[in-house]
Automatic annotation (TrEMBL):
CDD domains: PBP2_TRAP_Siap_TeaA_like. InterPro entries: DctP_fam, TRAP_DctP_sf. This is TRAP transporter substrate-binding protein. Gene3D superfamilies: Bacterial extracellular solute-binding protein, family 7. It comes from the Bacteria. The keyword Signal applies. The keyword Signal applies. GO terms for molecular function: carbohydrate binding. Keywords: Signal. GO terms for biological process: transmembrane transport.
Length: 318
């Protein structure tokens, strides 16, 4: 009886109820991946472990969730690398304008050693364990007003995700970067609180931003990575098997996110081109002045940038 009781108690100690937070709403691919991750862990652990997913900033914005992760109050999160770069500036290298040419290069870069090596900084710099990367689509610009090229961004209140690399890029164009959470964007466009948005094709379609901003600049000017993380405090208390389970299951879903955006980027672009939207295109050369100003700021802040550029060159040459 005593031996049996010990076994029952051990099983109870090992069973874990995890929580995972993220900012995206339920229809978003990141949230769907989080739910699939939770289901996979439940199945592979025989129901021993559960993961409750909290989308739509239910646990706070990303800065607040990072604080919770650092104290161990939150177990895991899917975070934009944007928020990570606010705490570990070297991650800002992933937002170098025109670092990659297309979505396939973006996915390949995020799987490269150069990108995964960045994750090694997280335990000491942020108290997090980085498992791997996902992403959203490449960034475009939509506007309520005329938008034929970068010059038309001058003075526009342009919604951004709140982080320094993208803020510095748009400041260099003459725009007025306006941080705003994703759920607030549609109404802000409708009431004129903002003039334009930095967004990917997927979110533009999901949230129907084209209903409120019918001018688009297809620029593909920046990638937008996401990182799956585990609280460092939680990680140190996990067994070797538990760590392997979480890493393996989370990486499967993060890779699926990369593949999702690779598969749909061109299709989503064509869908938007078929709508009643005025579309212009912009290239690296059109943003040359803004890029030069950005490089002047971030070449020192993000020392991993040359290594990432070398990796991209190797991807292009393969």
């Amino acid at each position: 009886m005593t031996a049996g009781l010990v076994l029952v108690m051990a099983a109870q100690v090992q069973a874990r109820d995890f929580r995972l937070g993220l900012i995206t709403p339920p229809p978003h691919r990141w949230t769907q991946a989080a739910e699939a991750f939770a289901e996979d862990v439940k199945q592979k652990s025989g129901g021993e472990h559960s993961i409750a997913v909290f989308p739509s900033q239910q646990l706070g914005n990303e800065a607040q969730m990072v604080q919770q992760l650092q104290t161990g109050a939150l177990d895991m999160a899917f975070l934009t690398v944007a928020e990570i770069s606010n705490r570990v500036p070297d991650f800002g290298a992933l937002y170098a304008p025109y670092l990659v040419d297309d979505i396939d290069q973006a996915a390949a870069l995020l799987k490269s050693e150069a990108a995964t090596d960045l994750l090694d900084q997280l335990p000491s710099e942020a108290g997090l364990v980085g498992v791997g990367y996902g992403m959203a689509g490449l960034r475009q610009v939509m506007s309520r007003d005329t938008l034929e090229g970068p010059a038309d961004l001058e003075g526009k209140k342009l919604r951004i995700t709140p982080f320094e690399p993208i803020r510095d890029f748009y400041k260099a164009t003459g725009a007025a970067p306006t941080p705003m959470p994703l759920p607030a964007v549609y109404d802000a466009l409708a009431n004129g609180q903002i003039d334009a948005i930095d967004m990917d094709f997927d979110s533009i379609l999901i949230f129907k931003f084209y209903d409120r901003s019918d001018k688009m600049l297809i620029s593909n000017h920046m990638m937008f990575p996401m990182v799956g993380v585990v609280s460092g405090r939680v990680w140190k208390d996990l067994s070797k098997d538990e760590r392997k389970l979480l890493q393996t299951s989370m990486r499967i879903q993060l890779d699926a996110v990369l593949e999702h955006f690779q598969a749909l980027e061109k299709e989503q672009e064509q869908e938007l081109r078929g709508r009643n939207i005025t579309i212009h295109e912009a290239t690296r050369e059109d943003f040359a002045d803004a890029i030069a100003e950005w490089e002047g700021i971030w070449s020192e802040k993000a020392p991993s940038l040359p290594k990432l550029r070398k990796a991209v060159a190797e991807i292009k040459g393969s």
